[in-house]
Design brief:
48% of the residues lie in helices and 0% in strands. It has nine helices and no strands. The chain has helices spanning 6-45, 58-61, 70-73, 88-95, 107-117, 138-143, 149-152, 169-178, 185-188. The termini are far apart.
């Protein structure tokens, strides 16, 4: 039986361990990295969910059309926890007239008007959602002067709204640091 020094056995075990880490670790790192990039790309480039009515912000927001400010429709944004989606009644504030003037209202306007006549709600599909353990309030961001496009992108130029930013903890903390906002955990976490 050949004598093998303990240092040599220990060294060969370390080499084997390092080799296994390299063989497993590098592919695992690459898979995780590619997955992260694909997830990020999906969030940033996707077209957004299909809504029950083909709603476009373009005619509502652009100045050469209605020129409405975000807070005109999302009325709770500056005073409550959520921005809120307008009710059918609120849509009808304008669409009792807008659409009728053109004599040929769009299909989307007809859908809103029909929902109003039939006393139906429009079940819009939520686009932006924070995890349940996060307490996000629009109010302090609006009162601090942030434009809605900071997080939501230029929705006024899009036919369909999609999530523009990742809106994860790193994104929020980075923005808070860059703007001198508090970063204590209890500010955003329940």
């Amino acid at each position: 039986m050949a004598y093998t020094p303990i240092a040599l056995v220990s060294s060969s075990r370390q080499v084997t361990l390092v080799a296994k880490l390299i063989l497993i670790g590098i592919p695992a790192f690459l898979v995780i990295s590619v997955a992260a990039v694909l997830i990020y790309a999906q969030v940033v480039t996707r077209s957004g969910p299909t809504q029950p009515i083909a709603f476009s912000h373009i005619p509502h927001v652009q100045a050469d059309k209605a020129g409405a400010d975000c807070t005109f429709c999302h009325r709770n944004v500056a005073k409550g926890a959520a921005a809120t989606v307008p009710s059918v009644e609120q849509c009808m504030f304008c669409h009792k007239v807008v659409g009728e003037q053109s004599k040929v209202p769009t299909a989307a306007i007809k859908d809103v008007q029909n929902a109003w006549v039939n006393k139906q709600v429009i079940d819009w599909v939520r686009v932006h959602r924070m995890p349940d353990h996060v307490r996000f309030l629009h109010q302090p961001h609006i009162l601090a002067g942030f434009d809605c496009a900071t997080c939501h992108g230029d929705v006024g130029s899009k036919k369909q709204v999609a999530q523009e930013r990742i809106l994860n903890m790193g994104d929020c903390v980075g923005c808070h640091r860059a703007n001198g906002a508090p970063t204590e955990c209890t500010i955003c976490h329940k």
